[in-house]
Each structure stands twice: as C-alpha cells, then as structure tokens.
Predict the 3D structure of the following.
Amino acid sequence: MEIDLSTIQGYEQEIDSAKTSDELYQVKVKYLGKKGLISGMNKQLKDVPNDQKKEFGMKIGELRNKFEALFSEKENNLAKSEMDAKLVNEALDITMEGFPLHAGSQHPIMSIYYEIADIFGSMGFEVAVGPEVELEHYNFDMLNIPAEHPARDMQDTFYISDNVLLRTHTSPVQTRMMEANKPPIKIIAPGKVYRCDYDITHTPMFHQVEGLLVDTNVTFADLKGTLTTFIQRMFGSNVPVRFRPSFFPFTEPSAELDMGCTICDSVGCRVCKGTGWIEILGCGMCNDELYRHAGYEPGVYSGFAFGMGIERIAMLKYGIGDLRSFFENNLKFLRQF
Ligand code: PHE
C-alpha cells in the first residue's frame, strides 16, 4: 500500500487564518496531535513495502517540518500581536500624577514641648518623668496642699481609689525627685496631667512642663532671670514680662508670670481681656514645708519652681482660640503645623 500525502491539504491556510493562539493550537492538534492527520501517516508506515519506507518516512518528516515552520512563525506573530493588544488595553500612564502621600508630622503640642525643652536644656535643666497614676501623697501631701484645698475635691481631681489619683500637675515628679536626691537638682518635668474640666480653655487631659531648681544661694533674681530668658526666647526678645504676687502652698514668695499680649502687642484685645497682659505660668521660691517633706536639713538649701501648660503656650504661639482643637484629631487642623 502507498501513503497518499496529497490528502493532507489546507493546513497552510488554516494556520494562516488562525486568529488567536487557541485557534492556532487547535490546528496543531488536528495535524500533529495523537490522532492528528500527519501523526496518522506515521502509523500507516508499517503497511508500506520495505523498500519505500525510507522515502515515505522522509516525506512525512518534510511535511511535519514544513508544518512546524509555518506554525511557529504564526505562533510568534500571534504572541506578538496579542502582547501588543494587551499592552494597549492594560496601559499604565506612567506620566500621570500620583496621589500625594502625607508623611505625617509632629503634633503641635509636641513641637512646642520640644521648643520648651530645648530652651531649658540649654540652661542646664534635665528632663525627669514620673507616673500619671499617682499617689495622693506625692501629688498633694508632699506639696503641702492641705486636705481642705479645693484641688483635693472630687470635682477637680480624678480619683482612682481613696489615695490614688490621676496626677493633677507634674509637681509629683519633683517631689519624688527631691525625696530620692539631695541638691543640686535642676530638672524640668513634662507630661500629661488630668483635671475634671471641659470648656474652650480646659480639657480633662492637658500637658504641663514644670521646673525645679534647688541648690545653695539661689535667689528670686535667679528665678526671674531664668523665666524671663525662657519667655523671651520663646516669644521674642522684646516681649515684656511682669511678676505678679500669687499663692501656692509649696512656694513663698509665689508669683504669676504675665507677658505682654502677643496678639495685640499689649494694646488690649479679647484674648488679654483688654489688659495687654497674658498670664503664662506660676512660679515661686520653694518654701520650708517643701524641704521639710523632702527630708532636707532646714535652712541649707534654696531654690525655685515653676509650672506652665503647654497648650496655653501653643495657643498663644499659633493664635488658636479653642484648646479642644488640639485633641479632636482633625487632620485639616493638624496639617497646618
Ligand atoms: N503645680 C502648679 C500647678 O499645676 C504650678 C506651679 C509649679 C506653681 C511650681 C508654682 C511652682 O498649678
């Protein structure tokens, strides 16, 4: 029997007209698959007389090679055009502007704190910290704040239990410091403090920086010099300051430090209530009671203490009217700083 290779026809056309890789693959299956037309020829070889086997074998081989050459050319063409189409359909415009990424920034309260810490740091004060959940002993008793003092009232202070509370100021950091160390002491105590209060100038949590300097021969002039320097480095060297007599149970004499209103240049406005002055911090010379509670020998040491609210300073520096805006986490507000 003879093999009739002429029955294998039309594959050139079929390869040529395949529109997709899938269609092309179907053509391959048709001719070269297990039951394909060209593969079938190989099976028929066994019925061919021996002297013709070689010749027919070669012819089948040629046909197969021809098919594969056409096939792979078409395969490459289709792959390329399919890739081109994909690139057009899934195109990325790499020149398109991206979405701006906000890297985040320091909270204004922290920025002001670092400014304050830098100024006192440059004058030799070190930073000390202590617990926010505090014993009444360190928050009040050691500071000579008597039982009948309004600060001790539940209205003003968050009590955890009978003698445990959320510290109402950072002064307990200083009393702990005095209890554990002999002078010289020269620290600032920054941190969160808590009072039962809520309106445009009060939030139940706010931040303080208090300071304590105890040594020998410290005078009120040192206090005035240190705090005047601080205010003028913070708000400008021309800002006037004045010390107004005041009272704290742990200092004597005590004073309130006022500075010229930076909003109206001391002319008088809503913020300074027409006075031209703004109250900025409390201070005074440490009194004997404070030393007695700390266990210091009487009459040996002298020193001063001061305390301020960071929010108040931030409000004045940035001209912010409502204290609560610092804690509302409104990104529009926070991104201004
Ligand atoms: N501890 C006082 C307060 O929080 C502030 C202060 C500190 C006043 C040191 C004088 C001296 O109100």
In short: The pocket of phenylalanine is lined by residues 169, 171, 210, 248, 251, 282-284, 305-307 (CB under 6 Å).
